[in-house]
Amino acid sequence: MPTVRFTGRVLPTALSVSIANRPTFHWKADELGLDMSFQVHIQDGSILIDCEVNTFEGAYLVPLFMRAYDLARAAVDLAAFSSGNGLTAVLDTFTDPTGAMTQLTAQQPSLAALATAVKIGTRDFDKVLQFVLAEPALFMALRDLVEAITSPHRAKVNCARAIRALTRFFDSPLGSREAMWLALRDKLQINKSYVQRITQALRGPTWEDRTVVPASGTNDVLHRTWVVMNRFFEYLKRDGQPLPLSEFPLLT
After folding, report:
1. DSSP state of 152
2. Model confidence over 156-199: pLDDT tens digits?
3. DSSP 3-state assignment of 106?
4. Rounded Cα gap, residues 66 and 69, in angstroms
């Protein structure tokens, strides 16, 4: 059977983490006709995950990475719990059955064009950074968005959680959650249906137990969330004044 390999590191490297166990994991992606059998080796801070597959093509890299990363992170998280150390798992190289190597990077270049409110090296970046540092809820919401890029199978829940966190900045005398959602939409010029496409992952048990949600439609949710967050940053830059429709047409 074809074999692929992921390699990476356990951070911080100074702890030189080793796990004597060699966890194994089997996963079947019926929609792809793909069977995966993983085995993880962690020695002196280096991660090596071998995976036997029944078939391979380039399009399978993402689902393979998702499962390999989950396995590496689960093993490292359990080791962190056991040792009382703060540990992070990173996978950075993929080797396909032919021996060809690919450097792994979590990227969504199309999102950069949507982040017009914040550009690295500008005064706007410094101004928005001060808001982020001053507001723990905003700090965490931004972290959720970044994790939506690195963990695509949890992206929808992360995006929904990030946008939900923004409502606290639109508190109203009525104090109801719906009033805060209404204020957010009115001041950022966003139609209710546009936001609901993002927040639908908040409904039902998915929001409570953080389970994986289907990946279909993830890119649309990511793009919508980036647009909403970008408008929120514009709102902060303008000292909390409603965004003018002349510059920010209603999102529907």
Report:
1. G
2. 999 999 999 999 999 766 678 889 999 999 999 999 999 999 99
3. coil
4. 5
Q: Which of 68, 103, 138 is the last residue of a domain?
A: 103
From residue 221, alpha-carbon distances to 66, 78, 151, 156, 166 in Å are 18, 31, 14, 7, 16
* Residue with the two structure tokens 């490292």: 76
CB contact at 8 A, 42 and 18: yes
Identify whether 248 is part of a domain.
no
Are residues 58 and 90 both part of a single domain? yes
Query: Global pTM?
Result: 0.80
Q: What are phi and psi of 162, to 5 degrees?
A: -65, -45
> Could you give the 3-state DSSP secondary structure of residue 28?
strand
**H or E element in which residue 89 lies:** strand 88-95
Domain total of the chain? 2
Q: 210 and 184 in one domain?
A: yes
**In a shared domain, residues 197 and 88:** no
Range of the domain at 147: 109-237
- The residue type found at 217 is G
Q: What is the pLDDT of residue 106?
A: 81
Alpha-carbon gap, residue 211 to 123, rounded angstroms? 39
- Domain identity same for 154 and 188: yes
Please name the residue that has the structure tokens 């010029």: 189
| pLDDT, mean over the chain | 90
Q: Which residue blocks in 3-151 are alpha helix, DSSP H?
A: 61-83, 109-112, 123-134, 136-150
Position 174 scores a pLDDT of 65
246 assigned to some structural domain? no
How distant, in Å, are the alpha carbons of 5, 37, 43 from that of 51? Answer: 6, 5, 18
Low-confidence residues of the chain: pLDDT under 70: 172-174, 202-216
